[in-house]
Amino acid sequence: MITEIQLSTLVFFVAVIWGVSLVLQGTPLSFDLLKPFTNVTGVLVLILAFFDKWAWHWKIFYPWLVSTPYIEGTWKGKVKSSWINPETAQGIDDIEAYLVIRQKFSTIHARLITKESNSELLTGEIIKNADETWQFVGAYRNTPKISIRDRSPIHHGAIMLQIKGQPPIGLEGQYWTDRNTQGEITFSGYNSKKFYDFGTASSARYPKRQDK
Fold it and tell me: Rounded distance, CA 19 to CA 91, Å?
Protein backbone atom coordinates (compact mmCIF):
# COMPACT_ATOMS: atom_id res chain seq x y z
CA MET A 1 0.00 0.00 0.00
CA ILE A 2 1.13 3.55 -0.64
CA THR A 3 2.81 5.11 2.42
CA GLU A 4 1.79 8.35 4.12
CA ILE A 5 4.95 10.07 2.83
CA GLN A 6 4.26 8.91 -0.71
CA LEU A 7 0.64 10.03 -0.45
CA SER A 8 1.64 13.43 0.95
CA THR A 9 4.10 13.86 -1.91
CA LEU A 10 1.43 12.94 -4.44
CA VAL A 11 -1.08 15.35 -2.91
CA PHE A 12 1.60 18.07 -2.86
CA PHE A 13 2.33 17.72 -6.56
CA VAL A 14 -1.37 17.65 -7.37
CA ALA A 15 -1.77 20.88 -5.37
CA VAL A 16 1.18 22.47 -7.18
CA ILE A 17 -0.19 21.52 -10.60
CA TRP A 18 -3.61 22.76 -9.57
CA GLY A 19 -2.13 26.06 -8.32
CA VAL A 20 -0.10 26.60 -11.49
CA SER A 21 -3.22 25.95 -13.56
CA LEU A 22 -5.13 28.57 -11.57
CA VAL A 23 -2.32 31.11 -12.04
CA LEU A 24 -2.24 30.50 -15.78
CA GLN A 25 -5.98 31.12 -15.83
CA GLY A 26 -5.50 34.41 -13.99
CA THR A 27 -7.02 33.24 -10.70
CA PRO A 28 -5.39 34.87 -7.62
CA LEU A 29 -3.92 32.47 -5.03
CA SER A 30 -3.64 32.73 -1.25
CA PHE A 31 -2.07 30.60 1.49
CA ASP A 32 -5.55 29.85 2.80
CA LEU A 33 -5.87 27.40 -0.06
CA LEU A 34 -3.10 25.27 1.51
CA LYS A 35 -4.67 25.01 4.97
CA PRO A 36 -6.68 21.83 4.22
CA PHE A 37 -3.53 20.03 2.97
CA THR A 38 -2.84 18.09 6.19
CA ASN A 39 -6.49 17.17 6.67
CA VAL A 40 -6.84 15.97 3.09
CA THR A 41 -3.72 13.81 3.41
CA GLY A 42 -4.92 12.30 6.69
CA VAL A 43 -8.35 11.45 5.31
CA LEU A 44 -6.82 9.87 2.21
CA VAL A 45 -4.50 7.74 4.37
CA LEU A 46 -7.51 6.43 6.32
CA ILE A 47 -9.44 5.72 3.12
CA LEU A 48 -6.50 3.85 1.60
CA ALA A 49 -5.95 1.83 4.79
CA PHE A 50 -9.62 0.85 4.87
CA PHE A 51 -9.55 -0.08 1.20
CA ASP A 52 -6.33 -2.06 1.59
CA LYS A 53 -7.67 -4.17 4.46
CA TRP A 54 -11.39 -4.55 3.76
CA ALA A 55 -12.98 -2.80 0.80
CA TRP A 56 -10.69 -3.93 -2.03
CA HIS A 57 -12.43 -7.29 -2.44
CA TRP A 58 -16.00 -5.96 -2.35
CA LYS A 59 -17.99 -7.02 -5.40
CA ILE A 60 -18.71 -3.40 -6.29
CA PHE A 61 -15.02 -2.94 -7.21
CA TYR A 62 -14.68 -6.14 -9.24
CA PRO A 63 -13.36 -6.26 -11.92
CA TRP A 64 -13.26 -2.64 -13.10
CA LEU A 65 -11.00 -1.49 -10.25
CA VAL A 66 -9.56 -4.67 -8.71
CA SER A 67 -9.37 -8.04 -10.45
CA THR A 68 -7.08 -9.85 -7.98
CA PRO A 69 -8.75 -13.03 -6.64
CA TYR A 70 -9.76 -13.02 -2.98
CA ILE A 71 -8.53 -16.27 -1.37
CA GLU A 72 -8.40 -15.36 2.33
CA GLY A 73 -9.52 -18.10 4.70
CA THR A 74 -8.55 -21.73 5.29
CA TRP A 75 -8.27 -24.21 2.43
CA LYS A 76 -8.31 -27.96 3.00
CA GLY A 77 -6.31 -30.19 0.71
CA LYS A 78 -3.56 -32.73 0.35
CA VAL A 79 0.15 -32.84 -0.42
CA LYS A 80 1.68 -35.56 -2.59
CA SER A 81 5.39 -35.62 -1.77
CA SER A 82 8.39 -37.32 -3.37
CA TRP A 83 10.05 -37.43 0.07
CA ILE A 84 11.40 -40.81 1.19
CA ASN A 85 11.17 -41.61 4.89
CA PRO A 86 14.73 -42.56 5.98
CA GLU A 87 13.34 -44.82 8.69
CA THR A 88 11.42 -47.00 6.21
CA ALA A 89 13.13 -46.22 2.89
CA GLN A 90 9.60 -45.88 1.51
CA GLY A 91 7.53 -43.07 0.13
CA ILE A 92 4.72 -41.61 2.19
CA ASP A 93 0.95 -41.38 1.84
CA ASP A 94 -0.78 -38.16 0.83
CA ILE A 95 -0.53 -35.58 3.61
CA GLU A 96 -3.65 -33.85 4.93
CA ALA A 97 -2.95 -30.12 4.80
CA TYR A 98 -4.59 -26.78 5.55
CA LEU A 99 -3.53 -23.55 3.88
CA VAL A 100 -4.41 -20.51 6.02
CA ILE A 101 -4.33 -17.27 4.06
CA ARG A 102 -4.51 -13.69 5.33
CA GLN A 103 -4.85 -11.27 2.48
CA LYS A 104 -4.87 -7.53 1.95
CA PHE A 105 -4.81 -5.68 -1.34
CA SER A 106 -1.11 -4.91 -0.86
CA THR A 107 0.11 -8.04 0.94
CA ILE A 108 -0.57 -11.74 1.42
CA HIS A 109 0.48 -14.05 4.25
CA ALA A 110 0.03 -17.80 4.32
CA ARG A 111 0.72 -20.77 6.59
CA LEU A 112 0.50 -24.42 5.57
CA ILE A 113 -0.46 -26.62 8.51
CA THR A 114 -0.03 -30.39 8.64
CA LYS A 115 -0.02 -32.87 11.49
CA GLU A 116 3.79 -32.83 11.72
CA SER A 117 4.85 -29.34 10.63
CA ASN A 118 4.06 -25.72 9.78
CA SER A 119 5.21 -23.90 6.66
CA GLU A 120 5.33 -20.11 6.87
CA LEU A 121 5.32 -17.94 3.75
CA LEU A 122 8.43 -15.74 3.70
CA THR A 123 7.50 -13.83 0.58
CA GLY A 124 4.74 -14.26 -1.92
CA GLU A 125 2.30 -12.64 -4.30
CA ILE A 126 -0.63 -13.30 -6.57
CA ILE A 127 0.32 -12.78 -10.20
CA LYS A 128 -1.70 -12.65 -13.39
CA ASN A 129 -0.80 -15.02 -16.21
CA ALA A 130 -0.78 -14.12 -19.89
CA ASP A 131 -4.05 -16.02 -20.39
CA GLU A 132 -5.87 -13.93 -17.75
CA THR A 133 -5.66 -16.67 -15.09
CA TRP A 134 -4.02 -16.17 -11.70
CA GLN A 135 -1.48 -18.00 -9.59
CA PHE A 136 -0.15 -17.72 -6.05
CA VAL A 137 3.64 -18.03 -5.86
CA GLY A 138 6.06 -17.73 -2.98
CA ALA A 139 8.96 -18.96 -0.88
CA TYR A 140 8.46 -20.58 2.51
CA ARG A 141 10.18 -22.08 5.56
CA ASN A 142 8.96 -25.44 6.86
CA THR A 143 9.36 -26.10 10.59
CA PRO A 144 8.63 -29.70 11.65
CA LYS A 145 7.85 -30.62 15.23
CA ILE A 146 10.95 -31.08 17.38
CA SER A 147 10.13 -34.75 17.92
CA ILE A 148 10.65 -35.59 14.24
CA ARG A 149 13.50 -33.26 13.26
CA ASP A 150 15.99 -36.13 13.26
CA ARG A 151 14.31 -37.39 10.09
CA SER A 152 12.73 -34.15 8.87
CA PRO A 153 14.85 -31.03 9.54
CA ILE A 154 13.82 -27.41 9.03
CA HIS A 155 14.01 -26.58 5.34
CA HIS A 156 12.98 -24.01 2.74
CA GLY A 157 11.12 -24.22 -0.51
CA ALA A 158 8.94 -22.56 -3.12
CA ILE A 159 5.34 -23.03 -4.22
CA MET A 160 3.36 -22.25 -7.35
CA LEU A 161 -0.41 -22.67 -7.06
CA GLN A 162 -2.91 -22.05 -9.82
CA ILE A 163 -6.06 -20.28 -8.59
CA LYS A 164 -9.10 -21.98 -10.09
CA GLY A 165 -12.29 -20.10 -10.84
CA GLN A 166 -13.67 -16.68 -10.01
CA PRO A 167 -14.62 -16.54 -7.26
CA PRO A 168 -11.90 -19.08 -6.46
CA ILE A 169 -13.08 -22.67 -5.98
CA GLY A 170 -9.67 -24.25 -5.43
CA LEU A 171 -5.91 -24.08 -5.71
CA GLU A 172 -3.53 -26.62 -7.17
CA GLY A 173 0.11 -26.72 -8.16
CA GLN A 174 3.60 -27.80 -7.20
CA TYR A 175 6.30 -27.21 -4.62
CA TRP A 176 10.07 -27.71 -4.43
CA THR A 177 12.42 -27.77 -1.44
CA ASP A 178 16.12 -27.30 -0.75
CA ARG A 179 16.38 -30.93 0.37
CA ASN A 180 15.73 -32.08 -3.21
CA THR A 181 12.11 -33.07 -2.75
CA GLN A 182 9.09 -31.93 -4.68
CA GLY A 183 5.43 -32.67 -4.98
CA GLU A 184 1.91 -31.67 -5.88
CA ILE A 185 -0.57 -29.71 -3.76
CA THR A 186 -4.34 -29.58 -4.19
CA PHE A 187 -6.91 -27.59 -2.19
CA SER A 188 -10.66 -27.75 -2.78
CA GLY A 189 -12.47 -27.43 0.57
CA TYR A 190 -12.87 -23.91 1.98
CA ASN A 191 -13.74 -22.26 5.29
CA SER A 192 -13.78 -18.47 5.66
CA LYS A 193 -12.33 -18.73 9.18
CA LYS A 194 -8.57 -18.62 9.71
CA PHE A 195 -7.25 -21.37 11.99
CA TYR A 196 -3.98 -21.51 13.91
CA ASP A 197 -3.32 -25.21 14.49
CA PHE A 198 -3.96 -28.62 12.99
CA GLY A 199 -6.45 -29.69 15.65
CA THR A 200 -8.91 -26.85 15.15
CA ALA A 201 -8.40 -26.77 11.40
CA SER A 202 -9.05 -30.49 10.98
CA SER A 203 -12.26 -30.36 13.05
CA ALA A 204 -13.88 -27.63 10.93
CA ARG A 205 -16.18 -28.12 7.94
CA TYR A 206 -14.90 -27.43 4.43
CA PRO A 207 -17.67 -27.38 1.83
CA LYS A 208 -16.49 -27.24 -1.75
CA ARG A 209 -17.07 -23.92 -3.46
CA GLN A 210 -18.98 -23.71 -6.71
CA ASP A 211 -17.76 -21.77 -9.72
CA LYS A 212 -20.10 -19.01 -10.91
Answer: 70
